Amino acid sequence: MARGTASVESGNGSREERGQNSPLSPHSSPPGPRLGSRLARWWNREGIWYLFLAPAVLLLLVFLAYPLADSLVLSFYKWKGLGARKFVGLDNFERLLDDRFFWGATWHTLVFALVVTLGTVGIGYLLATVISRRVFGSGVYRVGFYLPVMLSVVVVAALWVRIYEFNWGLLNTVLRAIGLDVLALPWLADVKYALAAVIVVPIWQYAGFPMIVTLAAIEGIPQDLHDAATIDGVSEWQRTWRLIFPLVRPVVASISILQIIFSLKVFDLVWVMTKGSPGNSTAVLGTFLFRQGFETQKYGYASAVAVVMFLIVFTLTYLYQRLVKFDAVEF
Amino acid sequence: MRSNSEDRELEVADRRTANGSPFAARLLTRIMMVALAVWFIVELYPVIFLINTSLKTDSEILSTPFALPTAFNFGNYVRVWVGEGANNKPIALYLRNSIAVTVATLALLLAVSSLAGYALARGRFPGSAATQQTFLLCLAVPVHVLIIPVFFMMDRFGLRNDLLGLSLMYTTMGVPFTVLLMRAYFLSFPVEMEEAAQIDGCSRFGVFWRVVVPVSRNAIASMAIINVSWVWSELFFALVLMDRSEAQTMPLAVIAYAPKAMMGESTIGPQFAAMVTAAMPLILVYFLFQRQITKGMTMGAIR
């Protein structure tokens, strides 16, 4: 272990040194008269920017680039955390293909991401179209619907564990009170319902997020377009679906992709609510990775999971970035 | 602004009456209003339930889950404040750790990101375009996949169970996003002001520190507000890196105070008190800076 990581480390270290030295060296070396003024000019126009960037780049190298590279390397090794790493080639990946718990976790992650995205964006869009008509109390709705987004996922998850609780949880209390005792199920303890029960929670928590974004887009539609539509005598139904929807569709598309990416990384929620149980029926890639790594000490195998997760999320995010660009903003 | 929105309201009212059969339109509006109100209750009742339950005694929680507490009972808060349970530390300790990590992360993050964002917005140097691309690529990395190497690296540096180690990790996680937003902001910053300062003999850093930062106070504050919610709530890295309870943060307190099966259900209340304690700072931030938050989120999403 020591040798394996040490070599990677030293390679990394030298890269950092180079990154730091190139902007610094002209400054620290004693400059000759003419060379000096040229250097000073270079320093003022170009060199100093490297110094501005240095802290951010250094952090990213040490805490992002190096761990990422090491994850990739580790996925080709067998390693228990102590002792030497043993090179096993693609063994970890081959074993992943045969691991039905891995496929289960992948499947749950995809279902989770898709349903949560459809739910939040769908509900958020509907809320936004209704609120944008300035119905009575729309200001209160706007503030209220976004409030759960601000809560920590851990708090929300722990709260919903209590809501789903079999004996005295809110949900079953309501169901029993209205005479639907048959529907009072052990929501999080039954293999059949646990995943669905977990999926409801982020839809509840995050519907306000697409709502706020869509609302901003709807309110950004120029008034002339509405006026033109009014002159043409469109009905409200046509206005909603033929005018507003096509105009905000790009925003809805981008928020959907963002929500998918965000949901694929789910960990906190599942960890606090079920830890992947019962019977792995709610296990997702995040919890699978955690358990393989930190509970069974199969760090090489867990790194292979990390690589798969990285590829899925990175590809999606990269495609998303090609579609949408950062522009100048004002506060 | 004000009159404009009033105009729009009139306009909307006009539209509503002008077209379609008035009865169908009115019915549809009614249905929408009811649906909206129902969803509002669905969204907010759990939050009220959370606060309500934290003020009840354990027997009240079990027998009358919907009722208001018979008397405001701060017993649960007292129980978490002194640290009830076998190996639970007082919540003040978790709170202190969370505040320390959040403050350190935000301070580091804002310093590092505004410097880098400024360089990307103003600098014309070899590799500036490539650097910006790199920040975009870093944004696409799901941080969860870094956990195993980060764990062993922190272990070797002695930064496990160390608030500084966690803060450094959080800062790194926030850097790509914050740098790109800061760059976008500085692009809209008036160059003339900086040029004037430079003619007066200010160095690049002098311009940044004496002119740009003071004028950008609002933007930098907005960055802090946008980042505070995830830093305060982060669980994954805290769970892995902080296994000693002296060093744990609020999300871990919520887990630590979960009712233990062996102690029965008499320990439900304290967890609710811990949850409210964890949620309150963010709710407070939300009500204080609601405009900046929704605006920042919108910006982040449409970026």
UniProtKB/TrEMBL annotation, chain B:
Gene3D superfamilies with a match to the protein in the record: MetI-like
Domain of life of the source: Bacteria
Record InterPro entries: MetI-like (IPR000515), MetI-like_sf (IPR035906)
Matching CDD domains: TM_PBP2
Bilayer disposition of the protein: Multi-pass membrane protein
Pfam family, one: BPD_transp_1
Boundaries of every ABC transmembrane type-1 domain copy: 95-289
Similarity comment: Belongs to the binding-protein-dependent transport system permease family.
Name of the protein in question: Carbohydrate ABC transporter permease
Species this chain originates from: Caldilineaceae bacterium SB0661_bin_32
